[in-house]
Amino acid sequence: MLDKKNFPVLRNNPRLIYLDSASTTLKPDLVIAAEAEFLTKNGANPHTDAFENALLASEMIESTRKTIANFIGVENVQEIVFTTGATMSINQITHGLKHLIQPGDEILVTDLEHAANLLPWIVLAKETGALIKTLSLNPQTMGIDLFKLKRSITDKTKIVTFAHATNTIGYLNDVGLISLEIKQINPNVIICVDAAQSIGHTEVKIDQWAIDFLAFSAHKIYGPFGIGVLWGKMKLLKQMPPLIYGGGMSSYIAEDYSGYELTAVPHKFEAGTPNLSAIQSFQKAVQWVSEIGMNKIQTYEQELKTYAIAQINKLNLAKKITFYNLNNHAPILTFNVNGWNAQDVANYLDVKHNIAVRTGEHCARLTGKMFAKNSIRASFGIYTTKSDIDLLLNALTKEDEFLDVFFT
Ligand code: PMP
After folding, report:
1. Mutate to test the pocket of ligand 1, among 117, 121, 175, 199 (most ligand atoms within 8 A of CB)
2. What is the CATH number of domain 4-28+293-401?
3. How far apart are alpha carbons 200 and 384 in whole angstroms?
4. How far is the CA of 406 from the centre of ligand 1 (A)?
5. What is the Cα gyration radius of the chain?
6. Which CATH architecture has domain 30-291?
7. pLDDT by residue (tens digit) across 19-44?
8. Where is the Aminotransferase class V domain (predicted)?
9. Is the ipTM of this complex over 0.90?
10. Segments making up each domain of the chain, as ranges
């Protein structure tokens, strides 16, 4: 869809076949330039109007906040909190909700959550006496089972948390439908959505969903590292204590140290010097993706998956390779070559063909409960081409070469 020449990593490594976009998307020139632009043309710490660059830095943060709010369908811009990424966003949510959780309250999670959307909830449950329960996945699609969902929600359900799309199978959950069903059964349930995997591949429109929290990272949508978003309903954000305390988030500290007052949401969650250059390039990434059009990106990536499936059938690969997600259009191919260790296959792909894929549990530590403990994941972005897919699939047909890597 987009020429690889727009992406310096690919331009500088013309032989690299990068199939690890679910881990992080490569950044186009204009995103990198936006990051450098802040450092070379502004460079100031915000939170003062004492001089122009500081004022401009503060304005840039708020203008990025607006861009993000608009992008994900949030009306109240102040509900957008900058964090270091999805991981911190979810940790802020669990920390912030602690005082609302009673022993015996139930927190529902799926078995394909990334550790970032699992561990913080387990810790919260341990700290509060809440119980973690399974939100069942449909064994075929590995998306949330809509029939079982109804039975899982009870008066005791306090929180339901799940990925919009998982980072292993990629099934796109219908958040609108799921959130409505949950709220119809128990309107008090707090719904948290991990959009880390979906944000760069499909539209996220919070105003069409009945959810309370959303988390994602900029680096999964062609943006920079070290910056992400926590969106929450203002009513809940106001009640939540920050995870981190420091500069820029207090309006008063008593001289005898006996008390303090915090600034309003979102700034009370943004202690310390912000990652300004990343915030600037995050805005550029989102503006750029919006210009291309999320629907166009999704259609293109679906075409890639359709092509991959057709080639897999043509090459009769299912005989030797177990694929786990050929029944969806997610930009991810997850598989194992029968009889081969996933890591060995990945090393072969890397060393012999310059193909970068990821192996293991992909930080979703319970994949063994659903499909396989270890697997190989090839994931696409807007720079992925049909030729990349051909190279991967052809390399996988050469089983006799898999071991060469270890003897050369
Ligand atoms: N959730 C999912 C589904 C993910 O794929 C990831 C990143 N691999 C995360 C959360 C965590 O994102 P980050 O490491 O950027 O905080």
Report:
1. 117
2. 3.90.1150.10
3. 14
4. 32
5. 22
6. 3-Layer(aba) Sandwich (3.40)
7. 999 999 999 999 999 999 999 999 99
8. 17-392
9. yes
10. 4-28+293-401, 30-291
